[in-house]
Amino acid sequence: MALIGVFDSGVGGLSVLDEALRQLPEHRYIYLADSLHAPYGEKSSEWIAARSLELCHYLVAQGCDAIVIACNTATAQAIAQIRSALPHIPIVGVEPGIKPAAMQSANGVVGVLATEATLKSDKFNALLATLPHHCQFIKQAGAGLVPLIEAGQANSEATLELLAEHLIPIQEAGADTLVLGCTHYPFLRKAIRKLLGDAINLIDTSEAVVRQLKRSLLLQDTSIAADDVAGSVQFISSKDSEVLLKMAHELMQSDLSTHRTKSITVSTFH
């Protein structure tokens, strides 16, 4: 079975790991959370690129057969550089699902909730330029949401209040579709439904990302045949691995008790 590295600035990428464990439960995983430096969304593009490459080199050194950049900000700012530096390993990124959102929207008004760094990135705006001009995209930076989710407050009143503020322009524009443009934001589904109801269509690309991972493993001729034993998950944090493991149990739908798990804290990555 393959060893798959999944990294994010913090706990957001757990939403992608959750989907990976659903589709590909037999593999071994390393989940790397750079919680010491979260959130990435407000840092410079140069810092994000350098740090993301450093973390990928670390995952390669651990023996990973493939890497998922489970962070929209890191994907937007660093994936080209990472693929150039590591050409012999599949690198799968995530990006806001604005293309499927444009296809699914009935009224052509789509809200995009993402980090400032993602919304300003060349990669995001190049993708936006390829989409139909009749579709209106309401871009909204979710400043302050990631730290609240990292603090285990995804469903707190403080998060609900801040989220409500961020969603006002999207509501006022009459959007019928909302893109969750940060891997942290799927953990706000309950809060979003409380504020916007069930009518709005939420777009999360985790399922598509894992399908791409599966294709990459097949192209690498890495065995993906299922067996009767679930794989392992190693949780690594640059800040506190015990907190990371606790949040994984709280946020993920996967039953981690069926997987061999361990957690370690590593403050530097070389």
Automatic annotation (TrEMBL):
Q: Tell me the Gene Ontology biological-process terms attached to this UniProt entry.
A: cell wall organization; peptidoglycan biosynthetic process; regulation of cell shape
User: What residues sit in the active site?
Assistant: 71 (proton donor/acceptor), 182 (proton donor/acceptor)
Catalysed transformations (reactions): L-glutamate = D-glutamate
User: Record's Pfam families?
Assistant: Asp_Glu_race
Write out the transmembrane intervals. Answer: none
Q: What is its EC number?
A: 5.1.1.3
Cite the entry's keywords alphabetically: Cell shape, Cell wall biogenesis/degradation, Isomerase, Peptidoglycan synthesis
What pathway is this protein said to act in by its record? Answer: Cell wall biogenesis; peptidoglycan biosynthesis
Residues reported in the UniProt entry to bind substrate: 8-9, 40-41, 72-73, 183-184
What are the recorded GO MF terms, alphabetically?
Answer: glutamate racemase activity
What role does this protein play? Answer: Provides the (R)-glutamate required for cell wall biosynthesis.
The record ties this protein, via HAMAP family, to: Glu_racemase (MF_00258)
Q: What NCBIfam families does the annotation carry? A: glut_race (TIGR00067)
The family note in this entry says: Belongs to the aspartate/glutamate racemases family.
- UniProt name for this protein: Glutamate racemase
